[in-house]
């Protein structure tokens, strides 16, 4: 049996950070460029760019808030 789960962090203002966003950041670190990352993840450059732009615009929110985990 394989158990899988997904994580999505949503702040009070509705901004969220998902597993896919985290995987995108990891892939970007490994690849070093958005275009290589998009190709490796089999997503469009625009999809990668839009996700990274969302993360970048809200990065201060994710690092400055205390996150309460509810299971």
The average pLDDT is 81
Neighbour order of strands in the largest sheet: 1-2
Strand content: 5-15%
* H and E string: EEHHH
Radius of gyration over alpha carbons?
14 Å
Number of helices, counting only DSSP H or I runs of 4 residues or more: 3
Uncertain segments:
none
Largest sheet: 2 strands, antiparallel
Instruction: Tell me the overall shape.
Output: globular
The structure class reads mainly alpha
The helix content is 55-70%
Could you tell me how far the N terminus lies from the C terminus, measured between alpha carbons in angstroms?
21 Å
Number of strands: 2
Molecular structure report:
The protein is mostly helical. Helices cover 58% and strands 8% of the residues. It contains three helices and two strands; from the N terminus they run E-E-H-H-H. The protein has helices at residues 19-31, 34-41, 45-64, and strands spanning 8-10, 16-18. Strands 1-2 form a two-stranded antiparallel sheet. A hairpin with a 5-residue loop joins strand 1 (8-10) and strand 2. Helix 2 (34-41) crosses helix 3 (45-64). The longest helix has 20 residues, at 45-64. The two termini are 21 Å apart.
């Amino acid at each position: 049996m394989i158990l899988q789960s997904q994580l999505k962090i949503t702040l009070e203002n509705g901004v969220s950070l998902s597993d896919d966003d985290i995987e995108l950041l990891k892939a970007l670190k490994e690849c070093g460029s958005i275009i290589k990352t998009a190709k490796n993840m089999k997503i469009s450059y625009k999809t990668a760019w839009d996700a990274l732009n969302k993360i970048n615009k809200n990065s201060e929110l994710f690092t400055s808030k205390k996150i309460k985990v509810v299971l």
